[in-house]
Write a structure and sequence with these properties.
Elements (H helix, E strand, L loop, with lengths): L2 H4 L2 E7 L6 E7 L14 H12 L4 H4 E8 L1 H15 L9 H6 L5 H12 L4 H7 L7 H8 L3
Antiparallel strand pairs: 1-2, 1-3
Helix pairs in contact: 7-8
Length: 147
């Protein structure tokens, strides 16, 4: 990866055009901020976007590039801090309030996962040991960040 590619990340938000409330905050490269198909977003997020289109708004009214020219490490840190601060409604998995409210895991399960991770198991292995698969590793990582 060249140094230009190292700094090719950005932080973006999806903003309600009427209230200016940030509804979603994310990171990306290339066209990620404008990628709005259901296989890329949660259904509730897509439904909200469709509502905005029906009101006559476009992605030009909704997408805001907040910061650009950053490394992946920089955008990940900024994203997590901003989500904790703003609590956007469509950042359910990363938003501590949503995570606690809709949480399916007991505190005992969360502490067990944390203990496995502290013993040196990676997120994918912890997910697997707890009955999931390697695709559940981000859920484990998010859960452990709030335990």
């Amino acid at each position: 990866m060249t140094s230009e590619e190292d700094s090719a990340f950005y932080v973006y938000s999806h903003v309600d055009p009427e209230t200016k409330e940030i509804k979603y905050l994310g990171i990306g490269q290339y066209d990620r901020a404008w990628s709005v198909r259901k296989n890329n977003r949660k259904a509730s997020h897509c439904d909200w976007l469709k509502e905005q289109y029906n009101k006559g708004y476009t992605l030009a009214d909704i997408v805001v590039i907040e910061l650009k020219g950053l490394t992946k490490k920089e955008v990940l840190e900024i994203e997590m801090n901003r989500i904790k601060q703003l609590k956007p409604v469509f950042n359910e998995l990363s938003n501590p309030d949503h995570w606690q409210r809709g949480r399916k895991q007991t505190e005992e399960t969360s502490l067990f996962a944390k203990a496995l991770h502290e013993m040196g198991y990676g997120y994918q292995r912890v997910a697997y040991l707890m009955g999931g698969n390697k695709n559940n590793h981000m859920s484990i990582k998010r859960m452990l960040s709030y335990v």
